[in-house]
Amino acid sequence: MIRISQIVDQSLWEYEQGNYKLAEAMLDFALRLAKKKKSTKYKGTSKNVPTNMALYNRVKSEAKKKFDVYPSAYANAWLVRTYRARGGGYRKKK
Prior knowledge:
With 94 residues, the protein is mostly helical. It has helices at residues 4-17, 20-41, 53-66, 73-85, and strands at residues 47-50, 90-93.
């Protein structure tokens, strides 16, 4: 798979060699590819939602008591691990 940075580097090399039209075409291609990649990155993403909200809220309140800083990466990891251990699950929300 070719990276955008590789295309840009190659176009700069072509420009230094005197192939101006080829370098310009390669840069245009890299820009179009970057725009396309950026626009499709977040399109259609879905969010994970707990299936058992009562259990999730109970575990979340325990996490708030257990950790000094909430939300934090450690507290959220503990929350997910404990929620799943107690039988909770997640589903995709569109």
